[in-house]
TrEMBL record:
InterPro entries: CHP03883_F420-assoc (IPR022454), Zinicin_2 (IPR018766), Zinicin_2_N (IPR042271). Keywords: Hydrolase, Metalloprotease, Protease. One of its GO terms (biological process) is proteolysis. This is Zinc-dependent metalloprotease. The keyword Protease applies. The lineage of its organism: Bacteria, Bacillati, Actinomycetota, Actinomycetes, Streptosporangiales. GO terms for molecular function: metallopeptidase activity. It comes from the Bacteria.
Length: 370
């Protein structure tokens, strides 16, 4: 189990403070981000043609500790029921019986909580925004199924670091995150599909002690490889064979939604974000940079893999929209069966042939008869 209180305490203690701004500047940033998220929503709906909720709740603006607390709440919603199921499957063994077993579990949960908190502290300084799929239940039943969250200090830090137009950059970020809100509110089955794949992935964990020991050895080797500059990640190391198959499906859908978000944020048009090309070039340079330690952490946590997903998914979306238009691309949201596989993300023509069907070749130019 995970001690979530320890995770929050560790994360909020370790997270670095954001850029120093006055109370008035902070208020202006919050107000503008909320307003721009509304502006972005209209552009995303018009551009994508997805029929999503028309009057969503305003974006929630948080600081870094607020982002940590929000993510712990989301983790609890997803993981606690799964951990109970896994404990039931594991049964009662030596470590789980008696006062000694209770103490071992308590110590283990605190250690795990500290590890989760340390990871969240690192991530809290990097994330610009997200659409939170998993929220604690609202007893009134009025709360939305998801929430758009923007991390104000990180947005201010990056725009200062890049030296870009602040309104353009904030709208650009909002376009990406509003695309995610549109995806998950406009495609009713998508949230449930992602949660189902996550559940299957976690429940497919090896519970045999010998298998778990092998996974831990693999994880240690992955860390060592990342430090040496290799491509191994902890995510790769801890998977069972069944988990690898499930992760392939999860990777495909997350590559799609991230790439779709990246495509929309750049394609909406210079008339909306006049400096979009400058922002993209400088932001990409920032993604590729960083210290040796930062690059190592990104490799270990799989963040570099996520960056590759943005680029790979964006190429897929751009190719499909170019060939079959936005209406053709939107067939992707019809059902889980019309989602691209990981292999089809790499070869968009295979997805188009399977879902769209044979396409007419460009007609030959007309010949004017004399």
């Amino acid at each position: 189990m995970i001690d979530w209180n320890v995770a929050v305490q560790t994360g909020t203690r370790l997270v670095r403070p954001g850029p120093q701004v006055s109370h008035e500047e902070a208020r202006q940033v919050v107000d503008e981000l909320r307003a721009l998220s509304r502006v972005a929503q209209g552009h995303v709906l018009d551009f994508t043609g997805i029929q999503a909720e028309q009057d969503p709740a305003p974006a929630t603006i948080v600081d870094r500790p607020g982002w940590i607390r929000a993510n712990v709440d989301g983790f609890k919603v997803v993981l606690e029921p799964l951990m109970e199921q896994m404990q039931e499957r594991r049964g009662t063994g030596l470590l789980s019986s008696g006062a000694g077993g209770v103490m071992v579990q308590a110590v283990g949960s605190r250690v795990t909580g500290m590890q989760v908190g340390a990871i969240l502290a690192y991530m809290a300084g990097r994330v610009l925004g997200q659409y939170e799929l998993f929220l604690p239940p609202d007893p009134s039943g009025r709360a939305p199924t998801g929430r758009l969250t923007l991390v104000a200090p990180n947005i201010v830090h990056v725009e200062q670091e890049l030296g870009v137009d602040t309104r353009d950059f904030r709208l650009w970020v909002c376009l990406h995150e509003e695309t995610h809100r549109t995806q998950f509110t406009g495609v009713p089955w998508l949230r449930e599909y992602v949660q189902d794949q996550m559940t299957k992935f976690l429940l497919a964990s090896d519970l045999d002690p010998g298998a778990m020991l092998d996974r831990l050895r693999d994880a240690a080797e992955a860390v060592a490889d990342a430090v040496r500059g290799g491509d191994s990640t902890l995510i790769d190391a801890i998977q069972s064979p069944e988990q690898r198959e499930i992760l392939d499906r999860l990777t495909a859908v997350m590559t799609l939604v991230e790439g779709h978000g990246d495509y929309v944020m750049d394609a909406v048009g210079p008339e909306v974000v006049p400096s979009v090309q400058q922002i993209r070039a400088r932001f990409q340079g920032r993604r590729d940079g960083g210290s040796r330690m930062d690059k190592t952490i990104r490799r270990v946590l799989g963040i570099d893999l996520k960056m590759k997903q943005y680029a790979e998914g964006s190429r897929f979306v751009r190719r499909v929209v170019t060939e079959v238009g936005m209406d053709g691309f939107n067939k992707i949201w019809q059902s889980p069966e019309t989602l691209p596989t990981h292999a089809e993300i790499k070869e968009p023509a295979d997805w188009m042939n399977r879902v769209i069907g044979p396409r007419e070749l460009d007609a030959p130019p007309e010949v004017n008869e004399a």
